[in-house]
Amino acid sequence: MTVEERKQPHHVAIIMDGNGRWAVRRGRPRTYGHHRGAERVREIVDIAPDLGIKVLTLFAFSTENWNRPGYEVRVLMSLFRRYIAREVDGLDAEGVRVRFIGDRSHLPKNLVKLMEMMEARTAGNTRMVLQLAISYGSRAEMTGAVQRLAVEVAEGRLSPQDIDQDTISGAMMTGGVADPDLVVRTSGEQRVSNFLLWQSAYAEYAFIDECWPDFTPERLTELVAAFGQRERRYGALAASS
What we know:
The chain is α/β, with parallel strands linked by helices. Helices cover 43% and strands 15% of the residues.
């Protein structure tokens, strides 16, 4: 890998936070913020490949979000359905492969069918991978991975001695996709909220003040450029040491 490639984030993951607060500050219902946030997704997905991003993961709905008021959850589920129906043709034409990560068992069946359709339609695309995390929680993901590996061991298909970091990574929902280089959280909050905990062990983080509806393509461009100025040591000494 060249120096230039190391300075370019291959995989950017974004915790899209602050839709509700953005709307309340403007005297609007929280659901208005979710609608505006959905519009912002299109702009960010459009520019990401032009910035050299090969994988873009967006945290859309966490396992904890099921505890929100029922009306707000229903609005979000409707927005997800509308997004898929509206964007599938365009994303396919642009060469974007879409993957969904998260627990689908709690999602409406009609939404799951749309998700499966979108994944199948875009499966052969190679320009960029778009991972949408819906009903996702990293601890649940890791628990599921451990359980699957335990079954393989119990059935004699896997030896405990053969389990290494690559084995565990492959058992995750993100198996086959490179780990994030840069994780961005909008809205000024400085916590990771159970998002890609295993995968982001060596990621750079950017906590920014803008709520998601105010997160522009220009801001993403700035963050990608700033990433190139960071020295990623992976536990080693700095080059000047």
